Structure formats: structure tokens, C-alpha cells
Amino acid sequence: MDKIIQISSGKGPLECQFVAAKVLKVFLEEAKENAIEYEIIHREKGDENLTLKSATILLKGKKIENFLKNWLGSICWIGKSTFRKNHQRSNWFIGIFELENLEKTEFNPKDIQFQTARSQGSGGQNVNKVSTAVRATHLPTKFSVFVQDTRSQLENKKISIKRLEEKVQEMDLQKMEKQMQETWKNQTEVQRGNPTRTFKGTDFKKNEPDLTFKKKRNSLKNDLKNYKNELN
Asked: How far, CA to CA in Å, does 98 sit from each of 33, 63, 95, 115?
């Protein structure tokens, strides 16, 4: 199962772009822990270094549905601004959304039709008399390229396949950008309240309770010590 999701700071200020960059790192770490393959297919940098306006990620794996239940929606970070020290706000929100009904075009070299031709322009006898140039057409999309970069027909075929694949990828990227723009319009304001996940602190580490006896014993020792100091 494949899914494409977008992490977005929406129209939030620079602090939200900071949160988006931090959340992306945690998101990818957890995806890896859940044996989910990922590919960042689009990234829009933020207005400052190490910040992020949005990232679009392709996910592949069997556990995607359960994994995304803990992520899709609004994400809250509780902390003081790292850019405006005197700013009073402490709750910052970003959003994680699924891009639906977006299919990636499968590129198969077997779908390419080749035609050979003589190379055009100057280049001596080899160019004028031998059919080393290649016109390649990707039948599903009708994209076509003409390659005469080398004097080898085989090498020109390899180059044409690569260029056609790049054209198909560019077409998919344009579709994706259009979808992202529509999603952006629908989510211009990231929904606040009832966040799916909440983070605290600038390291964005998962806050897992430590229930070990050692920590509890140390806590009791500190309480006893403080109590004795109060008596004295």
C-alpha cells in the first residue's frame, strides 16, 4: 500500500516552519521503526535555515494505516519561540494531511517505441551515413525525444530512456504540485485544538514515562532530603 502525505506549516509564522522541520525528522524516524519505506518527493524550505514550509512524502509498507492514525491531523508543539525571545505565545500548530486520489505513473522501458535516423548537423561520414540517432516515444504518455548525443545507437537509446523517464517524473510532479496547492487552499489555517500529537522541548523527543524502581527511589530520597532541610 502506498500513500502520499504532506507535512505543512500552513500560513503559520516562522515558528511553525521550525516545528514542521522538527516533526519531519521524528516522523521519518518512526516510519523507519515501523518498517515503512519513505521517499521525500517534494520539499519547500522555510524562510530561515533549518526550517520547513512543507514536505511531501511517499510511504510504502503494510503498517501505513495504523501508523498514520497517530499522525494525521494537527500537531502541537508547546515551547517558547526560538526566533522571538519575548513572544508570549507558547502553543504552535502545524498539519499533516493525506493527498488522496493521486497515482504515480508507472514507467516501463518496454512501453517505449524506438526509431533510428541519421544524425543531423556536421560530424563527418559517421554522422551523415550511419543511423545512430534515436527517436524514442513513450506510448502511454506520447512523450517523445530525439537523441544524437553519441555515435553509438545503443548509448543514444540509453540516454533517450533516461530522458523520457525524467519527462514522466516531471509530469507526476506537476500533478502533485497542483494537488498540493488545492490541499493548501483547503488547509490555509491549520486546525487548532484536539491535536493528534503534542511535543514539548526543542529536542522533540518522545516523552515516555520512566517507571523504573531506581527513578522512584531517587525521587523519594530527594523528597526526604528536602523535608530534612525544611526541619533544620
From this structure: 20, 15, 10, 42
* Nearest of 14, 53, 15, 5 to residue 199 by alpha carbon: 15
Helices and strands, counts by H and E, the chain: 5, 9
pTM of the model: 0.60
The single-letter code of the amino acid at 9 is S
d(Cα 84, Cα 10) in Å, to the nearest integer?
19
Residues in the chain: 232
Sketch out the chain's domains with CATH numbers.
2-104+175-200 (3.30.70.1660), 109-172 (3.30.160.20)
139-190 pLDDT, tens per residue?
999 999 999 999 899 999 999 999 999 999 888 878 777 766 666 555 555 5
